[in-house]
Amino acid sequence: MNIGGYQKLTLIDFPGHLATTVFTVGCNFHCPFCHNPELVLGASQLASGTENKTEREFFEFLKKRKGKLEGVCITGGEPTLQPDLVQFIQKVRALGYLVKLDTNGARPDILKKLLDLKLLDFVAMDIKNQPARYSETVGLKVDIERIRLSVDLIKNSRLLYEFRTTVVPGIHTEKDFLKIAKWLSGAKAYYLQEYREDMILDKNLKKKTKGKKIDLEKIQSAILKNFGKMGIRR
């Protein structure tokens, strides 16, 4: 695994559990509003599947925290790009930890494999925009059918899961969320995440967002009925 680092304790990344978050390097999307640009820009450094120093340190840390921490949140970047993700998760679970995966949904083949092997306890998938505007939003051509397949796999699984969208003024419109709600209708949980501009992948985005506002509460009110649970994260 190509690990960019890990956060020893998180109270929010894995709902209901004390956890640690591990960050993988590399992403197949190029969202201008990404708040982990250093992980995206490290895509050319993807590991070949061999254990590195950071991975060894991470597992040493997990062994020491057994009985104190409950789960591991695997995020990125995009974890499903890692060639040894299955083996990594198997090692985590062998130590008795629950596993949460954060994904952009571009690799339904990997997601299905993880689900079939029962290696996941929670999945969080980022929904970038309504299907018709996906490629425009993430900054490159996206196979939207693969995204749709990932959504269906998650919705039809028996796992705890959530979908979430970072709401970016100047990129998203209120109408986009009506279409997202129709697409995801019936999902257990959907969250709107407030956009923060302190660290983003594309600094030019600030020109597009300058002076723009979007009412998260208004969006929530309009689409709340489509989901089992819905909230706003700031």
Summarize the structure in words:
α4 links the parallel β4 (98-103) and β5 (122-126). The chain has an eight-stranded mixed β-sheet with strand order 1-2-3-4-5-6-7-8. 33% of the residues lie in helices and 21% in strands. It is globular, with a radius of gyration of 17 Å. α7 (174-184) runs parallel beside α9 (216-223). It has one domain (3-233): TIM Barrel. It is an alpha/beta fold and 234 residues long.
Helix content: 25-40%
The first-to-last residue Cα distance is 31 Å
Q: What is the CATH topology descriptor? A: TIM Barrel
Radius of gyration: 17 Å
Name the CATH architecture: Alpha-Beta Barrel
Strands, count? 8
**Biggest sheet, in brief?**
8 strands, mixed
Q: Low-confidence spans: pLDDT under 50, at least 5 residues?
A: 43-49
Structural class: alpha/beta
Fourth-tier CATH superfamily name: Aldolase class I
Strand order of the largest sheet: 1-2-3-4-5-6-7-8
**Annotation field: number of helices:** 9
Strand content: 15-25%
pLDDT average, as an integer?
A: 94
Anisotropy-based shape: globular
Our count of domains comes out at 1
Instruction: Note the run of SSEs as H and E.
Output: EEHHEHEHEHHEHEHHE
CATH class: Alpha Beta
